[in-house]
Design brief:
Belongs to the cytochrome b5 family. MAPR subfamily. InterPro entries: Cyt_B5-like_heme/steroid-bd (IPR001199), Cyt_B5-like_heme/steroid_sf (IPR036400), MAPR/NEUFC/NENF-like (IPR050577). Keywords: Membrane, Transmembrane, Transmembrane helix. The chain is mainly alpha-helical and 186 residues long. The chain has two domains: 2-41, no CATH class; 65-158, Flavocytochrome B2, Chain A, domain 1. It is 37% helix and 7% strand. It has helices spanning 2-19, 22-41, 65-68, 95-98, 113-118, 136-152; strands at 81-84, 87-90, 154-158. The chain has a three-stranded antiparallel sheet with strand order 1-2-3, covered by helices on one side. The longest helix has 20 residues, at 22-41. Bound molecules: protoporphyrin IX containing FE (HEM). The site of protoporphyrin IX containing FE has 14 residues, from helix 2 and helix 5.
């Protein structure tokens, strides 16, 4: 009996120590915020998310960072593109994540690489980001995300570095979504 009381006392102490930690509070806030955004992005009835627009496949082309910003889901056709590690994906079918009001809307029409690598849902650079300061662990995490994007979404082209010329895809076969040439050795 005394042993049980001691155990529950220890557990109570541990619980209070944990909830006093700022890291714990920050993590709980992040989880609550993201769950709230995901539920909200599914629509008001909590069951059926709004259908993503059915759009024709985009012709293969490369984008500057500025051109990419036109595809954040706010324009008329609602298309959403996201760049990950130098490749641009059409993520329109995941608009509830990346479109306006979605939990990862900061990535819509942007280069999401740094945000995905560092688990920061608000990070998307205004300037071209060469990612050279990221750690090996961050780069591994980015490559994991990249594989998921390759599986789920169509490749549209590459994200261009400042001054880089776009690839002319007209003489390339436009059949596969995973054949975009990449400038990086990722
Ligand atoms: C910490 C709390 C987090 C929670 C609870 C959470 C929860 C979720 C859930 C439930 C989904 C799937 C939603 C669905 O299929 O309906 C999802 C998708 C996703 N999460 Fe999170 N997430 C968290 C953090 C993050 C972070 C830190 C990142 C990266 C910066 C991230 C990036 C993503 C992305 C990109 C997707 C969508 C993948 C796709 O395109 O299908 N999440 N998240």
């Amino acid at each position: 009996m005394a042993e049980e009381t001691l155990k529950s006392g220890l557990l109570t102490n541990l619980f209070f120590e944990i909830i006093q930690s700022p890291v714990y509070i920050a993590l709980v806030s992040l989880v609550v915020f993201l769950v709230y955004k995901i539920i909200k992005s599914r629509g008001n009835d909590f069951a059926v998310p709004p259908p993503a627009p059915q759009l024709p496949k985009l012709k293969k082309r490369d984008f500057t960072l500025k051109e990419l910003t036109q595809y954040d889901g706010t324009q008329e056709d609602g298309r959403v593109l996201v760049a990950v590690n130098g490749t641009v994906y059409d993520v329109t079918k995941g608009k509830r994540f990346y479109g306006p009001g979605g939990p990862y809307e900061a990535f819509g029409g942007r280069d999401a690489s740094r945000g995905l690598a560092t688990a920061d849902v608000s990070a998307s650079a205004e300037e071209y980001d060469d990612l050279s300061d990221l750690s090996a662990m961050d780069m591994d995490s980015l490559r994991d995300w990249e594989s998921q994007f390759q599986e789920r979404y169509d490749v549209v082209g590459r994200l261009l570095k400042p001054g880089e010329k776009p690839t002319n895809y007209s003489d390339e076969e436009d059949s596969s979504s995973s054949t975009a040439k990449k400038s990086k050795d990722a």
